[in-house]
Amino acid sequence: MMAPGIGLMKKRLETEKQAIVLAVSGIVKKYGVAPVDITTLETKYDDELGDWYVALGFADKRAVVRMDSVHATISEINEI
Q: What are 3-18's pLDDT values in tens digits?
């Protein structure tokens, strides 16, 4: 039996809210800040790649979290 193509697979990060929750959890784990101290600055979904980008601010830092929407995983966290 063949698995469906990636285009036919159901996305696990379907909403902006789900993407923000995953991004915040990544910042909490990497930087040890409390979730209440993190502010969402901007979100973007890339239709071509199927990735979510969430810009977050915390303390005196800002970071962009890139996530794969199909696998619901964080691909990278970059401070800006």
A: 555 555 567 899 999 9
Q: Which domains does the chain have, with CATH numbers?
A: 10-79 (3.10.450)
Neighbouring-strand partners of residue 68: 51, 73
Summarize pLDDT for 34-78 with one digit per residue, the tens.
999 999 999 999 999 989 999 999 999 999 999 999 999 999 999
Distance CA(27)–CA(67), nearest Å, equals 13
CA pair distance 68, 57, nearest whole angstrom = 21
Closest CA to 11 of 51, 48, 65, 66: 51
Model confidence, pTM = 0.85
First to last CA, the chain: 45
Where do we find the tokens 């890339």? 46
